[in-house]
Amino acid sequence: MNWKKLWLTVAIAALITAVVPAMAQTATPTPTQTGSIHGYVNDPTGAAITDGIIQLIPEGSTTPKYTFKTDDSGNYKGTGIAVGAYVVTLREPNTPKGQVIDQFNGVRIAGGQDTVQNFDLSRAAYLAKLTPEQRKALEKVKAENAKILKENAQIKNLNKDLEQARKDNAAKNYAAAETLMQRDVALKPDAYLLWVELGTAQLGQKKFNDAINSMTKAIQIDQQSKKPNLEVEGIAGNVLGEAYGDAGQFDKSDAAYTAAAQADPKSAAMFYTNEAIVMNRNGQNDLTVKAADAAIAANPNNPIPYYLKGQALIQKATVDPKTQKIIAPPGCAEAYKKYLELAPNGPFSNDAKSVLQSLGQKIQSTVRNR
Q: What angle do CA 181, 227, 237 make, to 5 degrees?
C-alpha cells in the first residue's frame, strides 16, 4: 500500500480479514431498483489512494457483486447497484487474498439515490488498529512529508522570485534583481539558476568581480549535478566571459567564451560574436579577430563578425612612405566587403564603405540574391 504523495513509500497498512455479517439473504431487487455510490479514499497520511479497489459484497454473502476503482485523485464512483445492504471493502492490487485494508458494514443502497462512503484511513478508529511499529513508521512519514511540503513551498517562492529577477534584468533594474537573488541564494545556495540571475544583475551594474564569482559558482554547481544542464553552462559562460573581459582579464574571458561554445555548440556563433564585441570595445584587436573568425566559422552568414574583424585589422594598417597609401593587413578589405555583401544597408555600412574607399577598393553597388 502506498502512503505517499511526495516521494515517500511506507507499507504499514492494517490488513484485516474481511468480515461479512451473517444475515439472511435478501430477495433480489428488480433491475429498476438501483442506486449509486461514490467516495474519496486516502491513506493515513492524508494522501489520495490512486490504486484502490472498492468492492460491494451483499450482506449474507462472501462474494463481491460490484467492483470499482479509484482514479488519480483518489475518487471512485459506481452506478447501477441493486438496492440493498452491503459490506463495502477497500483493497489494493497487492492486498493478500481474503484480506482487506478497510471495510464498512451495513452500507445501504437506496433506489434512485447516491450513497457516499469515504475511506479515510487517517481517522482515529482506523489508526487504532495499527501496531506500535506501524504508528512509529507513520509518524516518520508524516514528518518527512511535512518537510517536503515546506521545501516545495520554498521552491515555489524561489521560482516566483527567479521569474521576477529575470524581468528586472531584462528591464535593466539590476539592483532590484541583485537584492532578490542575494536573498534567495542564501536560502538555497545549490540552485545554479539563482546564481546565473545574480551574476547577470551584477554584470549589469559593472560589478565585474561579483559577477565572475556568481557565474563561476553557477557553473560549478551545474557541473557537479547528476544531469548537468549544458545550455545553462553556456549562458553562464557567456556572461562570465563578458565579466572577465570588461574586468581586463582577457585570457580568462577568451577561455570562458570557448568553454561556453563547447558546452552549447548550437549557440557557439552567438557566444563568439559576443566575445568579438567585448574584445573590440576593450581594444583587444588580436582577440577580436580570433573571436570573429570563430563566429564566422560557426555561422558564415552573420555580418557583424566580419565588420568587427575588419575594424580590428584596420587598426594594424600602415602607410606607404612613398605613395602615402594606406596598406591594410591581409583579410581586412575582404572582411569589410563581406559585411557589405551580407548587410548592404546595415548600421555599419557607411563606415565599411568609407574604409574601403580609403584603401582604394572597389565597392560593389549591387548585392547578389541569396
A: 50
